[in-house]
Design brief:
Elements (H helix, E strand, L loop, with lengths): L1 E5 L9 H15 L3 E7 L12 E4 L1 E3 L7 E3 L3 H8 L5 E4 L4 H13 L2 E5 L9 H4 L4 H16 L4 E4 L2 H10 L5 E3 L6 H4 L6 H10 L7 E6 L8 H14 L3 E6 L5 H10 L6 E5 L6 H5 L4 E4 L8 H8 L3 E5 L15 E3 L3 H11 L2 H13 L5 H29 L1
Parallel strand pairs: 1-2, 1-6, 2-3, 6-7, 7-8, 8-9, 10-11, 10-13, 11-12, 13-14, 14-15
Antiparallel strand pairs: 4-5
Helix pairs in contact: 1-15, 9-13
């Protein structure tokens, strides 16, 4: 198949959408398909040029300075129109998604969309709390309108499928979890020398255990809750250091919270790390913590499990069929008290055993399985489009 992937986030940008699109591009290519990616230029894109990856001119988003928005020009659009795509796969509800959808209509090819982000959880970036209920309502209506324009929709989890159906989406929906390259995260892959080097880079002292958080440092990720209860955790487990890997608008605020609570000596806020090296940072962890409710899937949970960490996360529907509480991870309620209790359990011998079992539990989420399921979705979308054309021709 000739496949076009259109996305507003792509490698070397680091986030779930960028990683999902990169894995899909690589695996579909390995399966013999001819795949082209269209994405905005981002920091470091020049070092990763590829004949099949088209980085379009871009500008920083006004409200999210660490994100770029593409500026497609006539030449780029004409070049894409010359591609004999069998299917176009959009991964954005905005500029690049609109471009992909426009091209599919011009070409008459099948068009599939993955709904990666629950946009109603992000409206506060625009409203800052004023009229947020109306903004969330608009986000739901926009999501419904958007998804109804495609031959098929991919939802990373049943949580996302149910949400889209609640919005009123009637287009066929396939639940396909994004996959990861499990071999990269295997605990046995990293040498003691490598782990020692990364621990030193992150300020981890000899004998310290690591509570790890990896992801965007923004309000919806709720990392500040973990910082709030860390003094109480540290009083019980004084050998634990909290290592935070990521960038985002809350980075300085998190540093201030650590200083205000006199725990900055036991907290390391490292910043973002290159995606191709991120497995090295999981390798230093003992427990991976997340208190986010904004995930559609949350690849970091699976990466942590594949790395042999005990995942401690606030219960969320995106974790259904991913983590079995007490078996291959620990799920907790929203309150600080429940989170603290769960983290204490995670740092106990029980948590160490859970981490060992988590490696096996991550196996169904391979990139190979991901690409295989997306390929099936494409075939169904192409067949549906062909049937639609046949019906139109018969009526004519």
């Amino acid at each position: 198949m000739k496949i076009g992937i259109f996305t507003d986030a792509y490698y070397p940008e680091i986030n779930g959408v960028a990683t999902s699109c990169l894995n899909l591009f690589q695996e579909l290519t390995l399966r013999g398909h001819d795949v082209d990616v269209y994405a905005p230029q981002c920091k470091g894109w020049e070092q990763h040029r590829n004949a099949n990856v088209h980085y379009l001119a871009s500008t920083p988003l006004p409200l999210l300075k660490d994100r770029n928005v593409a500026l497609p020009n006539y030449k780029a659009i004409q070049q894409a129109l010359d591609m004999p795509f069998d299917v176009i796969h959009t991964n954005s509800e905005f500029v690049m998604g609109s471009l992909g959808q426009y091209l599919s209509k011009k070409m008459g090819c099948a068009c599939v969309h993955t709904y990666h982000t629950i946009w109603e959880d992000y409206t506060s970036y625009i409203t800052h709390g004023l009229g947020d209920a109306s903004a969330r309502k608009f986000a739901r209506r926009y999501s419904e309108w958007w998804c109804e324009r495609f031959d098929r929709i991919i939802a990373p989890t049943a949580k996302t499928e149910k949400l889209l159906q609640f919005y009123g989406v009637e287009a066929p929906i396939d639940i396909i979890p994004s996959g990861i390259d499990l071999s990269r995260f295997a605990p046995e892959k990293h040498t003691l020398e490598d782990i020692t080097s990364v621990r030193a880079e992150c300020g981890v002292r000899d004998g310290e255990r690591v509570l790890l958080s990896i992801g965007r440092l923004s309000k919806e990720k709720n990392v500040d809750q973990i910082l709030r209860i860390f003094p109480a955790l540290h009083s019980v487990c004084p050998d634990v250091r909290f290592v935070i890997i990521g960038e985002g608008p809350m980075k300085e605020q998190l540093s201030q919270i650590a200083r205000d609570n006199s725990i900055d000596g036991f907290v390391s806020i490292i910043g973002a790390k290159p995606w191709e090296q991120i497995d090295r940072y999981y390798a230093i962890g003992d427990v991976f913590a997340s208190t986010s409710h904004s995930e559609t899937q949350g690849l970091t949970y699976i990466e942590a499990m594949a790395s042999g960490l005990c995942v401690c996360a606030v219960q969320d529907p995106c974790l259904d069929n991913v983590i079995e509480n007490g078996v291959d991870g620990i799920l907790t309620g929203d309150s600080d008290t429940k989170l603290l209790t769960a983290l204490q359990l995670a740092f106990s011998p029980i948590g160490k055993e859970i981490g060992k079992r988590a490696v096996h539990a991550a196996q169904p989420f391979s990139t190979e399985k991901f690409a295989e399921n997306v390929e099936k979705c494409y075939i169904a979308a192409i067949a549906s489009k062909a049937q639609e054309r046949d019906s139109a021709n018969n009526e004519a």
